Amino acid sequence: MAAGEDTHGAAPAVVDRELQPGEAVSASGRLSVARRVEPTLPPGPFTPVQLAQIDEALTLSSRTTGLDFSVYLGDLGEDTRASAEQLHASIGPHAASAVLIAVSPGQRVVEVVTGADAHRRVPDRGCKLAVMSMVASFKEGDLSGGLISGLRMLTDAAGAAPRD
Questions:
Q1: Among candidate residues 105, 99, 115, 117, the one with its CA nearest the CA of residue 153
Q2: Mind listing the pLDDT tens digit for each residue in 127-164?
């Protein structure tokens, strides 16, 4: 195209191949391509199925024992026990009858915190056995299985909810 040459009305450039899905030739002859872009969310540690299994285990544990079970997964800071106790206290008015399993995979720490009422039903020995079971699963790379196993062991240690 020389300087001053009029290009209006010129035939668009012809694409010499078959267009793929999502491709179109614009009126100016430019090839326009649409591509699906999936958002890149950071992968969580659990699949949707594993999350459902953990949720079910939490629900069954709470329903069976009458205690409030919670799981925390994340960094626990420098003083892991104090952080876990602070998380447990943040449960609020139900903290006395609550059991918190706090896991920090990066720090390789598992803390089980029980409230005053829960401690009467879940002895330290039961907590230690549950932690040992969880750690064995975690070492095999089974984070969700370890949590579910620990919840079941703590549920067994607590027993059925007392009848009023």
A1: 99
A2: 999 999 999 999 999 999 999 999 999 999 999 988 86
**138 vs 34 pLDDT, higher one:** 138
Alpha helices in the chain (DSSP H): 48-65, 80-89, 116-121, 124-139, 143-158
Domains of the chain, by residue range, sit at: 48-157
Angle between helices 143-158 and 48-65 (to 10 degrees): 10
CATH T-level topology, domain 48-157: Diaminopimelate Epimerase; Chain A, domain 1 (3.10.310)
* Residue corresponding to tokens 């020389």: 2
What are the residues whose beta carbons fall under 8 Å from the beta carbon of 44, sequence distance 6 or more? none
- Stated pTM of the model: 0.73
Q: What's the rounded Cα separation, in Å, for the pair 131 and 10?
A: 76
pLDDT of residue 8: 54
**Which residues have a Cβ under 8 Å from the Cβ of 36 and sit 6 or more positions away?**
22
Assess whether pLDDT exceeds 80 at residue 14.
Answer: no
CA distances from 122 to 54, 128, 138 (A): 20, 10, 22
